[in-house]
Fold:
Amino acid sequence: MKQYDVIVIGGGHAGCEAALASARMGSRTLMITLDLEKIALMPCNPAIGGVGKGHIVREIDALGGEMAKCIDRTGIQFRILNRSKGPAVHGSRAQADKELYKNDMRRVLENQDGLELLCREVNELLIEDNIIRGVRMDDGSELLAKSVVITTGTFLNGKMHIGMKNSPGGRVGEKPSSHLSQSFLSIGFELGRLKTGTPPRLARDTINFDVCEIQNGDPFPQPFSFSTDKIDRPQIPCYLTNTNEKTAQIIRDNMHLSPLYSGIIEGIGPRYCPSIEDKIVKFPDKNSHHIFLEPEGLNTDWIYPSGISTSLALEVQEKLIHSILGLEEAKIVLPGYAVEYDFVPPTQLSATLETHRVKGLFHAGQINGTSGYEEAAGQGLIAGINAALKAQNRPSFVLTRMESYIGVMIDDLVTKGTEEPYRMFTSRAEYRLLLRQDNADARLMGKGLELGLIDADTYKRCTEKQAIVEKEIQRLTKTKVVPNQATLPTLEKIGIDDLKTPTTLAGLLRRPEINYVQLTQAFGDETLPPLEGEQVEIQVKYESFILRQNQLAEKQKRLENYHIPPNFAYDQVSGLSREVVQKLQNVNPGTLGQASRISGVTPSAITLLMLLLERRTKEPIPLNKQAG
Amino acid sequence: MESSIATGGSPGDTISAIATPKGEGGLSVIRLSGPDAVTIARALFVKANGKPLSEKMVPQKAYFGELRSAEGTCIDEAILTWFKAPKSYTAEDVVEICVHGGQYVSLKVLQRTLEAGARMAEPGEFTRRAFVNGRIDLSQAEAVIDVIHSASDQALKTATAQLKGNLSKKLSDLYDDVLAVLSQLSAAIDFPEDDLKFVQQAELLRKIGAIQSSITQLLGTYRQGKIFREGARVLLIGKPNVGKSSLMNALLDEERAIVTPHSGTTRDLLEESIRLRDIHINLIDSAGLRDNPEAIEEIGIERARNALKEADLAVVLFDQSRPLDESDRLLLCVVENKVRIAVLNKTDLPAKLDHSDLKQRLAGTPLLSISAKSLEGLEALKDAIYEKVAKGEHASESIVISRERHRSALAQTLEALERARESVENQLSEEFVAVDVQMAMDHLGGIVGKNFDEDLLDQIFNEFCIGK
Structure:
C-alpha cells in the first residue's frame, strides 16, 4: 500500500497552498481531486484581494505561499482600494483571468518536487484510535498518510438551487461528495449548513458598455508578491452600472419564486455578500445598488456582474437583468444559483487547524465555514505547514492575532466558530495599524525562512530593505532643521511658513501636508526607492499610533503565553460555572488568551484559570486521562 | 482584564501589609509572608526580656515584646507569632505582629517592615499566594475578598444592585452610542466600494462630544457613590478656640461603642472615625491649624484649602459668644465653593454674634446652633451631616458611580474619545480615529461585559447594505 507523509483532499485554493507548503517543506505529498481541470478554479468572482483579503494574500506570500505570485502573473487589472485613507487599510485587489490563473497554478503544482496529483474521489477516512491513518477511495483502494488535510469546499452534501428547482452538486456541473459527509458524521463531527450564491454570467458582446461608467485599474499596477518586480500584462477596464426601481419591483413581484424566501434554503448565507433579493428586502429605502461588470478573462466573453448574486428562477433573472441600464439586451450564459453545503464548525479544531477529535486530520477552507479564495488559501497554508510538521515530528506552527490577519482569522474560527460564511474584514483585527499589507514581509518572512518556505536570498532582500528603512528613519530623526535665511526658502517650497524652533526632518514629515518624496527632494537628500520610502513615511508619520497599538499588543501577548494543556479538566475546577465549563470544553483553547476570547467566559474565570496555571503545588492541575 | 485578585508581583519575595480593616477593631495585625518573614521580624522585634528572637524560635507560639524603630526607640508593645511554612495562611513563612490599635502605630510598624526588606503587598496578594500555593480553593478566596470589599451595608447594597439596574442601562446605552460611531468608521474602511453614506466630520464630532458629556456627567457622581463605599471625610474647620475639638469629642463620646480612634496619616490633622447610620464618617479636626494662633491668617489658609480639597463636607464653626471677626470672614472665603454646614457653637454662653449678617454671608448654607459642651443641638447636627453626605450635591441623580473600577474605566473612555476627537479634527482618516474609539469600546465593554467585535459586525450589517 502506498504511504505518503501528507495527503491533501481537494484542489481548490486551500488545497493548492496546503499541498505546496507540505511538499516544499520536504514532506512526500499527494493531492487528490475530483477533476484536475478544476484545480485553483474561481467559481465566483474573478478577483483576488480587497481590503482585509489583500492583507491575507501578502501574508501568504511572506510565508512562501503561491497565491500572490500566481495573481501577479495572471492579473488583468490591479487596483489599490482605500487609497484615500492611510496605508494600514490599503487593500490590493486584482481582476484575474480565471483560465490563466488556474492553468498557472496547476503548472506550479505539477512542477513541484515531492508533490503528486491524483484524480479520484475519496469516500472515507481511515482512522485508528483517533489517529488518522489514510483514506479509502471510491474503488475501495486505500492510501496511507501521517497527516491528511481536507479542503473539500462546498462539496460536502452540496445542493444547488435555481428558482424552486434544486439538485445535488458542489458547483455548477459537478457532483457533490456525499460519502465523505457521511464519513464525517460517523467519526462524530458535528456538522452545520451554510449557503452561498453567485450571480448569472453575461455575454460580453450583448452588453452596452457605452452607458456604463468605466473603471480603470491603477496607472502603475502594484504587485502582491515581494518577489514580483513589476506587472507587465496590459490592464483592461471594468464597468459600473446600477439597479433601479424597476429591478426592485421585479424582485418584489417574484419573491414566491425565491428559494431563499420560500424556506427551501435552510443554510445561512453571508451578510456581507447578500443576494439581490436580500438587499431589496432588507434595505427597501435604497433605490439603487452598484453592479460592477468584471471580465472573467482575456479570452472569454463571460462577464461577471458583481453585486447581483441571485437564486431566483431563470426567467426572473432574465427580467431583472434586462431592467438594468446597459444590460437591456444582455444574454445570460450561466444562471445565478445558490449552493447549500455542509461545513464542520471550526471550534472542533485547534489553532493549527488539526481536529481535536482525530489527530493528524486537518481542515482548511470552506469546510471550516469561511468564504473567499484568500481566506481558504491562508488556512490551506497553515494546515499544510502543520500537516508537514506533524509528519516530521516537529513542533506545530501558530500565528497570533497580534502578528497577522491569518492569525486573527484562525483564532476567530477555532475560538468563536461562525454562524455565517466567514470573511475577513480589517475590523476583525484589534491591531489594524500594525497588520498592514505593506509590512507583511517584515512581520512574517523570518517565520517563512524558519519553516523552509522562504529561500535565503529572498529573506536577505527583506532584511536589507528593513535595514535601509531603519537607517533612513535614524537620519530623519537626527537631522535638525533650523529656521534661518538659508532654510526658509526650502521650507516655503514645501508649504511650511510657520517654523519657529529647530525641528527634526522626522518632525516635519509628521505634518499631514508633507510627504517623504517632497521632503527629501526639497532638502536635496537622496530619496529611497518607493517601497522603502513608503515604509519610512508610514513609520515616522504614524509613530505614536503604532506605538500605542504595540503596547496593547504586548499586553495581550502575556495571556497568549499561558498554555493550557489539551486535556485540562475544566469540570474539576470548583468556582467555574457549568456554563463556562461547557464553553471551555467545547472550544478546548490552547492558550489563556484564546480562552479569554470565548464569548461568555468571564474575566473572573480567566483569573481563576491563570491562578491554576501558575499554581506551584504538589497536586497537579486537573487533567483528564489522555484519550488513546 | 479586570479581576478582584492581584495578578502582578514576583513570587519569592516577602510581602507585608496591615491585615486588619481600616477603622475597625481594637487591635491591629501587621502580616508578613515570604521567605524573609522571620528575618525581617527579628530586625524590629525585641522580646520582653530584652533579647532578640533566637534561632530556636518556636512556630505557632506567641512571643510578647516590643517593636523598635530604626533608632532603637520603642514603637509599641506587640505580640508576635510565626506560622512556619507550609502551615500558614499563605503556605509560606508568615509572621503576624499584633499591636494595640491605631492607624498611626500600624503604619509605623508597616513602614519598619518595608525598611527591613519587605515589599508592600498588593490588594488581595496574601489570598492570591494562599491560592497559588494550594492552601485554599477559589471559593474561599472569593469570600475573603468580598468581605474585604464590602465596607458598609450601603456598599453591599450598591454592590449587588450595581450592574442590574439603572447604571447598567446607562452604561449599555453609552456602549451602544460608541459602537454606532465605530461602526460608521469601520464600514467606511472595510467597504470602500459599497456606495455607502457615512456621517460627515461635523456630525461625527457632535456624536463623540455628546458621549463625552454623558460620561463627564456620570463621573461627577463618583464622589457620592464613593462615600457609601469608603466613607465620607468631614472636616471640622473654624478659628482657634471656636470649639472644634470639643465638638469632635462630643460626636465621638456619643458613638464611643463603635468608634475606633485612629490618628491620621497627615500630621497636621487629627482623624477619627464614627458611624452615622449606614455611613462611615471620618471626622477630621484641623488640629494643626489650632496649634498656631496665626495659622488661619497665614500658612493656615493654604493648609485649610488642602484639607478642604480632600473633604466631602466642611462643618464650619462660629463662636456665637463673640462677634464675627476677620478670621471668620477669611474662613468664609476659603469654604465658599465647598459643600458645607455652618454651626454656631457655644449656645450655652450669651449671644454676641450678628446672626443676620452671618446668614447673609452664608448665602443659603444651613445654619445650626449647638453647644458642644451641653450637647444641645447635637442630634440635629448629626442629621444634617448625614443628609449632606448621603444625598450631597447629586441627590437628584438616580445613577451614581460608586466603584473605582467604573470610575477609572469611564475616565479612560473619556480620554480615548478625546484623542479620537483630535484625530477627527486633524482630518486623519477613519482607521486612526477608530484606534481610539475602539479603545473607548474596550474600556466600556470591560465594565458592561460586552464583546465588541461581534457587536460591531452586527451593527455594520444592520445599518449598511453591504455586498458588492
Remarks:
- Residues 229-391 of chain B form a domain with the Rossmann fold fold (CATH 3.40.50.300).
